[in-house]
């Protein structure tokens, strides 16, 4: 009887957990996946510059290129109407012009980072400022449009 009760509780818990998941094919799910990839990639780049990860010029340049490609993708997954589960503020939809401007700022900063990786030999010190600009572009958008 106890085993049956425990099994029932476990299944109930799993069912409730599954209800909280976002459809990965929905615009929200696609945005979240892209933003998570961007975060992981930028954390690796920042980690190389801050000594948490060993600096590898080839890996850094590949990561910068990947981040630049990722930075151009999430914006297409913001639908015309806000989803209920979104952690974005209503202002994303109310102030589209500003939101798009910040998206273009991020794209410009990741493109500048890629350009900085073409300087041979690639030195970590030369990449600090371009990475800082990328981080500031991310932060600017989060401060205006993300609910924490």
Automatic annotation (TrEMBL):
Signal sequence coordinates: 1-18
Keywords: Signal
InterPro entries named in the record: Cyt_c_II, Cyt_c_prime
A Pfam family that the UniProt record links to this protein: Cytochrom_C_2
Keyword Hydrolase: no
Superkingdom to which the source organism belongs: Bacteria
Name by which UniProt lists this protein: Cytochrome c
Organism from which the protein derives: Geopseudomonas aromaticivorans
